[in-house]
Amino acid sequence: MAKQSKLRLGIVGIGNMGKSHIANIVNGSVPSVELTAICDSDAAALKAYPDYAHYDDSKKMIRSGEVDAILVATPHYDHTTIGIDGLKAGLHVLVEKPLAVHKADAERMIAAYNKRPNKKQQFGAMFNQRTDRRYQKIKELVESGEIGELQRVNWIITTWYRTQTYYNSGGWRATWAGEGGGVLLNQCPHQLDLIQWLCGKPSKVNATIGIGKYHDIEVEDEVTAFLEYPNGATGVFITSTGEAPGTNRLEIVGTKGKLVADGPGLTFWRNRETTDKHLATSPNGFGTPECWKCDVPVGGGGGQHSEILENFAQACLGKAKLMAPAVEGINGVELACAMLYSGFTGKPVDLPMNGAVYERHLKKLIKDAAAKPKRRKAKAKTKKAASSDFDNSF
To answer: Which one, 227, 237, 242, 254, has least CB within 10 Å?
Structure first.
């Protein structure tokens, strides 16, 4: 029997990202995928694509026999229920960012994957920034020991500036009930994934958050988090949707030098002698190790969404290993939850954190927000947004 050459894919959620994935498949950027079905609660969104089977209910599509895999590009909270349903039904599942709104939901998805009926099932996350050659090079340099032992990481990512008009564009947007958070849940999942992918998970998080600091919203629009790592290294993560002009600068410092990603390039400030050895043995009280500035070749931004989807399809067909396993997606989700919980409680949070504790806290935030007068007039027609209304493109 001939091996399957293409993965039959169904996309759940035809919003901005769903449409983008369809375009990538149609233009040939994902050669191992055959789009066979699409699903959305908005009939108008489906009509724009007459060449595929239409479903208004993901459960029906998952059990239709027309798809081998689903790509979940719906509002955040639906990632969990639809993802688990697909896994239980034996399908391969790829989930848009974030994997889930909070850690407890991510744990539920991973538990379903661990109990999957077909052990060949693939469970991936749409962490397209992992395809960026610069971040791949940073990971290579860190893991190979080229920068020495990790001492410090600092990421300022404030290029997420948004206006009040952006937040007013839907009643679900920037709400605890609709998105589950603000800048950390909507804009920063990629950076939260990357910082743990590159440097490992911190052991403690201490954060200050701004709730509606710059906008009339009920969620966070500014975060400054202090990270502590098991080896004593420290980190700072700063993000905001109310700062202009914004900055996107990543520094990773080790005993052998410093990596700086600021703009399109990557610079490695390489020490000839490690700092721990130099500071212990140098006869000069003020001297520093000899340092070379090295411009590291990185080779472009990678294939982004198309590359992740093609890799997912190849993995499902048994031809490749997943670049972005969804089981790793819990790490970024946990960082977001820890930052928010630390900000609300004013106390540091040890990792791993208790997912159930934060879930209870989030439910209280939703309940308290519902009891307050509406902060603004929403343009959304219904309380729960259709997936076609949901902007999952940041």
So the answer is: 242
Question: Cα–Cα distance between 302 and 129 in angstroms, integer?
Answer: 8
> Cβ–Cβ contacts within 10 Å for residue 14, how many?
27
- Asked if residue 162 is part of any domain, the answer here is yes
pLDDT computed for residue 63 by the predictor? 98
DSSP state of 231: T
- 266 has which bridge partners? none
Judge whether 386 lies within some domain.
no
Write the pLDDT tens digit of every residue in 158-193. 999 999 999 998 888 999 999 999 999 999 999 999
**Given pLDDT bands bounded at 50, 70 and 90, which one contains residue 378?**
very low
Nearest to 100 by CA among 88, 83, 112: 83
352 or 376, which is more confident:
352
- 2 belongs to a structural domain: no
| N-term to C-term CA, the chain | 43
Paired tokens of 228: 């502590």
Omega before residue 189 within 30° of 0, cis: no
Residues 352 and 290 in one domain: yes
Domain that residue 362 falls in = 130-301+331-376
Name the token pair of 53. Answer: 């089977």
Q: What is the CATH number of the domain that holds 135?
A: 3.30.360.10
Same domain? For 236 and 139 the reply is: yes
Is the Cβ–Cβ distance between 108 and 80 less than 8 Å? yes
The H-or-E segment that residue 58 falls in is: helix 58-62
pTM, rounded to two decimals: 0.93
Same domain for 117 and 215? Answer: no
Reply yes or no on whether the pLDDT at 393 is more than 70: no
Which tens digit of pLDDT belongs to each residue from 333-349?
999 999 999 999 999 99
User: Would you call 357 helix, strand, or coil by DSSP?
Assistant: helix
Assign 361 to helix, strand or coil: helix
